[in-house]
Amino acid sequence: MNYALYINGIYETVLTEIVDAQKKNDNLLCYLQPYSPYKINWKKSVIPTPQNPISLYISTTSSLPIVSYKAKIIGWENKNDINKKRMILLNKHIKEFQPKETEIYLTVDDGKKCINLISVIELTKLQIPIPVQNFLKIDDNLPLKTRTRSGGWSYVNILPDWIESSTKSIIADDYEKNLNVGINNSRKDSKDARQDRLLKASKMPESILKIQRGYNRNYDVIVSVLDRANGICEKCNEFAPFNRKSDNSPYLEVHHKIMLSKGGEDTVENAMAVCPNCHKELHYGVV
Question: pTM above the 0.70 mark?
Fold first, then answer.
């Protein structure tokens, strides 16, 4: 399925117990019991199955602002509908593989009902936790907001595999500084020294997660500035170099005269539509 479920706040002891159990038993199915009295509303009423699993992202009760675990959901049950025979089998499974959970419980400490029973496989801890704001909700394509309580859920877009598998993160500004230092040092070296390093270097670059501060841009500012330019760069006064594949409109980029990072406003007056070449010049060219 082309979407995932995000669950907010599960005890890490529950998750680590499942991770350990599944490491010892290939394809072991385990259970999650989110603290919520409300039934999960599966999109289009399609309940996940082993043939059609749904990706799951999880934050823990101690770290609500970040997603630390992922898994595959292959089943769901409403606890209110589970018969006695099925409950005996479930509790036997819990006792063997998730003993810290004790049992399939119908209520939590404050007496609140707990009705969702989720079957998961391949539960793993992410090498680098991901802020919840990096996940976009399916309904409105807006970033998730950090919740203050456990038990909620949202449908989100699936993250690319390279983000989930990254083992190293770096601040984007630091990466650029390090890259420029490396380039300058390489220029100072002899051609033979560079060639020697190239022969020893890996041909496949390491995948890293670059962390960068961004801004929630105003869509109306972007559209208004592009409409004003009408396909002509507002710096060099030349036509846009090509048209967008998506809608055949002239390709121009919106640049802020006073950059947002310098306190500039996200307004039509502080923005201009420029071609990619002029945009690079405005950021990196000689003033």
Answer: no
Confidence of residue 231 (pLDDT cuts 50, 70, 90): very high
* Cα separation values, 252 from 48, 217, 228, 232, 241, Å: 43, 16, 11, 8, 8
Which string of b and e fits 125-135 if b means at least 16 CB within 10 Å? ebebbbebebb
Name the 3-class secondary structure at 131. strand
Residues of the chain with CATH 2.30.130: 4-161
CATH among 2.30.29, 2.30.130, 3.10.290, 3.30.160 for 4-161: 2.30.130
Sequence-separated (6 or more) residues with CB below 8 Å from residue 177? none
Residue 139 pLDDT:
86
Report d(CA 135, CA 155) in Å as an integer: 9
114 Ramachandran zone, left/alpha/beta (phi>0; psi -120 to 50) = beta
